[in-house]
Design goal:
The model has no long low-confidence stretch (mean pLDDT 94). By secondary structure, the chain is an alpha/beta fold. Helix 1 crosses helix 8, helix 3 packs parallel to helix 4 and helix 6 crosses helix 7. Helix content is 45%, strand content 14%.
Length: 272
């Protein structure tokens, strides 16, 4: 395949090993895409990817023989988002797929205890960031004239409420509304916009949630995960690869007439 015809995928929040974003980019790399690793590059907060984390993920992808671009981006800031996509176009000359994966789910407390700063942080990253990235990516996709795919990583929390997760649930519910509206707005440009709604996946964020909610329920983490698996019809916890596979399908030609959907990847736990 000519290098200029290889498709390009950008995945936000992809700068940590073991994360959903890394799994998604691994899947796309194995399908021959040029991949863009991007995350906040924060070196002072254990909950966020550092510059060295991002570079390590990028190195792993490069070892597969694909072209990789590694760029920091704070999705809360429109100027940072615009700079990200401008650099992608300058480097590769095209943009085919955006995966909006960046999100914050570590604010876990009763609604009465959530501060305005905590609320704002989760909404800014998990919802506003999706809007800013969608807006910029779609602009370049429209200019390229080839259409495109925008895939938003929502959550089971985008369809159901969960205790002690008010900011996250609110943001993810908003992602589905944004997905449906953007699908209408950009459909004439052959840009599809869909959301993927996984249930629990034990990534770095998932691990923090395991620790919190197992303690909240007075259980060991092992017992908590066993209980979780038992209520899923498929009788197992979701894997990052399950979500990555759905993203790859939605980016494929076979999904060219699918848009505005919020697709569960939950082993049957979430059915609406």
């Amino acid at each position: 395949m000519n290098e200029n015809t290889k498709k390009v995928v950008v995945c936000t929040g992809s700068g940590r090993h073991g994360g959903l974003g890394e799994a998604i980019l691994l899947r796309f790399a194995n399908e021959g895409y040029k991949v863009v690793v991007t995350d906040i590059g924060n070196n002072s907060d254990r909950h966020r990817a550092s510059s060295s984390d991002m570079e390590s993920v990028a190195a792993g992808l490069k070892s597969l023989g694909v072209e990789v671009l590694c760029l920091p981006c704070d999705v809360r800031l429109p100027d940072s988002v615009a700079a990200l996509f401008d650099e992608v176009i300058a480097r590769f000359g095209r943009l085919d797929v955006l995966i909006n994966n960046a999100g914050i789910g570590f604010v876990m407390k009763h609604s009465r205890e959530v501060t305005s700063a905590e609320w704002g942080l989760v909404i800014d990253v998990t919802l506003s960031g999706v809007f800013y990235c969608t807006q910029e990516a779609a602009k370049h996709m429209e200019a390229g004239g080839r259409g495109g795919r925008i895939i938003n990583i929502a959550s089971q929390a985008a369809k159901s409420g969960f205790p002690h997760m008010a900011p996250y649930c609110a943001a993810k519910h908003g992602v589905i509304g944004l997905t449906r509206t953007a699908a209408i707005d950009y459909g004439a440009a052959s840009i599809t916009v869909n959301a993927v709604c996984p249930n629990h996946v034990t990534t770095g964020l998932g691990g923090a949630q395991n620790a919190y909610f197992s303690a909240f329920k007075g259980m060991t983490e092992e017992a908590y995960l066993e209980e979780m698996a038992a209520r899923i019809p498929m009788q197992r916890i979701g894997l990052a690869g399950d979500t990555a596979a759905m993203c790859a399908f939605l980016a494929s030609d076979d999904a060219s007439f699918i848009t505005g959907e919020a697709i569960n990847v939950s082993g049957g736990e979430e059915m609406h």
